[in-house]
Design brief:
heterodimer, A: 114 residues, mainly beta, B: mainly beta, four-stranded antiparallel beta sheet
Chain lengths: 114, 116
């Protein structure tokens, strides 16, 4: 069975600082990996996805993530935080198979300080 | 393109009462999901439909939860009787067949349930 672990339930950065949100996965088969963002009182929105193509994946709003098989990691980064980035971020994994089931991590709340 | 629609957005009930949530997926999306998101946790899949058939309901508490997808379009999730621990946001998501291999989901805004 697949699983994800997000290190740090709450990350606080200053505006303009580097954003680093950590995600480690466990999967018995090559995974598909995702980062979703959830703004207050809204549903989840896909930020980016890794589907076995390039290991460095670029997403919306300047975010990117790198798939590292040796470290079983898929950390999310953004060079310069903006106030509008404040939200909750979820890492998710989908193993191979036909039922498309995603398993989500517990989420990391990002706070951006002025 | 209209997104995934859910109603009601908020619902407060007392324990042992019943509640129903409705979801209208994006037009043409074959796959529909119901997720439960408890405060401080990530979304947990309750049930997945492919057209009007159930693909996965392994984490649905079937003694109190039920779900159906009429004619492969709209879906209803029902809880009867509700327990305190059912307080959560219920998220509906859909996905087109073309995205079947990537698992990209389109989420609604959710229905927040408070059980007193």
């Amino acid at each position: 069975a697949q699983s994800v672990t997000q290190l740090g339930s709450h990350v606080s950065v200053s505006e303009g600082a580097l954003v680093l949100l950590r995600c480690n996965y466990s999967s018995s088969v090559p995974p598909y990996l995702f980062w979703y963002v959830q703004y207050p009182n809204q549903g989840l929105q896909l930020l980016l996805k890794y589907t076995s193509a390039a290991t460095l994946v670029k997403g919306i709003n300047g975010f990117e993530a790198e798939f590292k098989k040796s470290e079983t990691s898929f950390h999310l980064t953004k060079p310069s935080a903006h106030m509008s980035d404040a939200a909750e971020y979820f890492c998710a994994v989908r193993a191979g198979g036909s039922n498309y089931k995603l398993t989500f991590g517990k989420g990391t709340l990002l706070t951006v300080n002025p | 393109e209209a997104g995934v629609a859910q109603s009601p957005r908020y619902k407060i009930i007392e324990k042992r009462q019943s509640v129903a949530f409705w979801c209208n997926p994006i037009s043409g999306h074959a796959t529909l999901y119901w997720y439960q998101q408890i405060l401080g946790q990530g979304p947990k899949l309750l049930i997945q439909f492919q057209n009007n058939g159930v693909v996965d309901d392994s984490q649905l508490p079937k003694d109190r939860f039920s779900a159906e997808r009429l004619k492969g379009v709209d879906s209803t999730l029902k809880i009867q009787p509700a327990k305190l621990e059912d307080s959560a946001v219920y998220l509906c998501a859909s996905s087109p067949q073309a995205f079947a291999n990537t698992g990209e989901l389109f989420f609604g805004e959710g229905s927040r349930l408070t059980v007193l």
